[in-house]
Specification:
single chain, alpha/beta, Amidase signature (AS) enzymes, 11-stranded mixed sheet, 15 helices
Length: 484
């Protein structure tokens, strides 16, 4: 089956004319029609537009101009602007909105010949860790449909894990690519902040947001990252010379690799089964010559608290533009502009979004700015400095991606604070802007466990190279979910 191939394998078959782009697309669309009703990964499937893109991709291949991923199906998280396709952020306040332009990352993907098959579900405006905060429906984990796939990019993770597409795009503000990748048993990569343009990504936390890929292998994720990356004059935070070079991806060696294990990542808050899977993987890597050293990074314990001041503060500013005037539907109420805006935002924003807007507005208000937002930025700098010092002595910082495996949807045992703690291990990479990747490293009670690898700022190439070598060395890494 084409759907079971990795992106690299499919692209190779396309180049060798063993399968056509249209045949690959048709099988992908058939798989979505058959499987997605059980998992609800997609908000919108664009069959007609995808058929047109498939024809263009086939012409590139026929003319010998295709790239390494030309013709491969791609799903896109629905917070990235896509010309001609709905972009809702899983919110009623943007229901029916169709952008007139592509986000830069989308334009890059189209130029490389990837075929966009649809837009995937997410927690509303990317605010959540379970994909239950979508205004439309929750997404279900292909390992067990009663469990959450994680969030906020749950739909994109499920699209790849359930073999509906080979690749998908997500956004990561505090772990929203890596955490669902871990819970769904696939690879999720957050590049260094500024190496992938954020232009056209509907902003949540502008200093934290980063677009990145989901894939079944590190090689696929690396190739997709190379397509996405590069300087963009439309994004003022885009780095110069930021193209991710993956030509040396397969040349990595594990012998002599120095890895730091923060004891804060290996605390009692981590589920025993997750610790066991990670310890088993560490033992396997020791046999390959990897050197592990336990270190202490005390600021990690402050990460969740710091994040939930900075991110909501930035969100309260970014989401002010959604007022019923410029985008989406409008609720007519009262006799003046203020009444209309209040009614629109009050009725069309979901509970979690309104909660974070209120928290962020409070943190930025006069009299509280220094006590909360300014102090949180100081802690953020402290955390970034601690990691930077660690990277001077070590090649990687490793830990579990998520403190637990996939958890039940609508679980009464998980309160909102427990859900926010799901990002305990992933938040530091967003605070420091450094690259971070989650790769499968085993199972706990039959559910996937992710290993989190962090590298220094702009060390994306070395991180991907090392992750590729680790992936090959792990005996119980990639497994398919027990689904049709």
């Amino acid at each position: 089956m084409v759907c079971q191939l990795t992106a690299t394998e499919l692209a190779d078959k396309l180049r060798k004319r063993e399968v056509s782009v249209r045949e690959a697309l048709d099988e992908c669309l058939a798989r979505i029609r058959r499987v997605d009703p059980d998992y609800s990964a997609f908000l919108h499937v664009s069959e007609e537009a995808a058929i047109v893109e498939a024809a263009s991709a086939q012409k590139l291949i026929d003319d010998g101009e295709g790239g390494p991923l030309t013709g491969v199906p791609l799903a896109v998280k629905d917070n990235m602007c896509t010309s001609g396709l709905p972009t809702t952020c899983s919110s009623k306040i943007l229901e029916g909105f169709v952008p007139p332009y592509d986000a830069t990352a989308i334009a890059q993907a189209r130029s490389a010949g990837l075929v966009i098959v649809g837009k995937t579900n997410l927690d509303e405006f990317a605010m959540g860790t379970s994909t239950e905060n979508s205004a439309f429906f929750p997404t279900r984990n292909p390992w067990n449909p009663d469990l959450s796939p994680g969030g906020s990019s749950g739909g994109s993770a499920v699209a790849v894990a359930a073999e509906m597409t080979q690749l998908s795009l997500g956004s990561d503000t505090g772990g929203s690519i890596r955490q669902p990748a871990s819970l769904c048993g696939i690879v999720g990569f957050k590049p260094t902040y500024g190496r992938v343009s954020r232009y056209g990504l509907i902003a949540f936390g502008s200093s934290l947001d980063q677009i990145g890929p989901f894939a079944r292998t590190v090689e696929d994720a690396a190739l997709m990252s190379s397509v996405l990356s590069g300087h963009d004059p439309l994004d003022s935070t885009s780095q110069k010379d930021s193209q991710i070079d993956v030509t040396g991806l397969k040349k990595g060696s594990l012998k002599g690799l120095k890895v730091a294990l923060p004891k804060e990542f290996h605390s009692d808050s981590i589920e025993p089964g997750v610790r066991e899977a990670l310890d088993f993987a560490i033992d396997a890597l020791k046999k390959e010559g990897v050197e592990f050293t336990e270190v202490s990074l005390p600021s990690i314990k402050l990460g969740v608290t710091t994040y939930y001041i900075i991110a909501p503060a930035e969100a309260s500013s970014n989401l002010a533009r959604f007022d019923g005037v410029r985008y989406g539907p409008r609720v007519e109420a009262g006799t003046d502009h203020i009444g209309m805006v209040s009614a629109t935002r009050g009725r069309l924003f979901g509970h979690e979004v309104k909660l974070r807007i209120m928290v962020g507005t409070y943190a930025l208000s006069a009299g509280y700015y220094d006590a909360y937002y300014h102090r949180a930025q100081q802690v953020r700098r402290l955390m970034a400095d601690e990691f930077e010092r660690t990277f001077k002595d070590f090649d990687l910082v490793m830990g579990p991606t998520s403190p637990c495996v996939a958890f039940p949807l609508d679980s009464e045992d998980l309160d909102q604070m427990a859900l926010k703690l799901m990002d305990y291990c992933t938040i530091p990479a967003n605070m420091g802007g450094f690259p971070s990747i989650s790769i499968p490293c085993g199972l706990s009670n039959g559910l996937p466990v992710g290993m989190l690898l962090n590298g220094p700022v702009n060390g994306d190439e070395r991180l991907l190279q090392t992750a590729h070598a680790i992936e090959r060395a792990l005996p119980h890494g990639h497994k398919r979910p027990p689904m049709p």
